[in-house]
Design brief:
This protein is an all-beta fold. It has one domain (about 35-150): Jelly Rolls (Sandwich). The protein contains no helices and twelve strands.
């Protein structure tokens, strides 16, 4: 066993219980095109980690969907990342997302990310359409994900 083996994640875990603002956490029906939420890094598995990171796949749909409700993280920053899956055109997300940050609605159609400073209200987050699967990654810059629903 190597000195740094414990720093690698080789088993994914169900991270859906960590999040509190998504529709499923609020007892709502999960959008049918939303894949399982997988954890990548958190202190429970890697005690030295001071971040919480997970991802999921979002599949194709013609139906608009609401996924994450308005909320705020009072003590930590967050980075949300969405990544298309076309290696010939990595910038093309293959979807049309809608996201609100501090009252401003944004339309997202390209691979990218958003940095959300602590205390900034954000969401709802959803989609108008998804033409092909893409990855959604949440990087919470603190050891334990916490949020206050608005």
């Amino acid at each position: 066993m190597g000195k740094h083996d414990h720093l690698f994640t080789t088993e994914l875990w169900d991270s859906s219980k960590s999040f509190t603002a998504e529709g499923e956490a609020l007892g709502e029906e999960v959008p049918t095109n939303l894949g399982a939420s997988y954890g990548l890094v958190r202190p429970a598995e890697i005690p030295e980690a001071q971040v919480h990171m997970g991802y999921c796949w979002i599949g194709p749909t013609d139906e608009p969907g609401l996924w994450v409700h308005p909320h705020v993280h009072p003590d930590q920053d967050e980075v949300l990342i969405w990544m298309g899956n076309d290696p010939e055109n990595p910038k093309d997300l293959g979807a049309r997302l809608t996201m609100t940050v501090d009252g401003e609605e944004h339309i997202i159609t390209t691979t990218g990310s958003v940095f959300i400073p602590r205390g900034t209200p954000h969401c709802p987050l959803g989609w108008e359409s998804v033409e092909r699967p893409f990855r959604f990654i949440s990087l919470f810059l603190g050891p334990d994900y916490n949020s206050i629903n608005l």
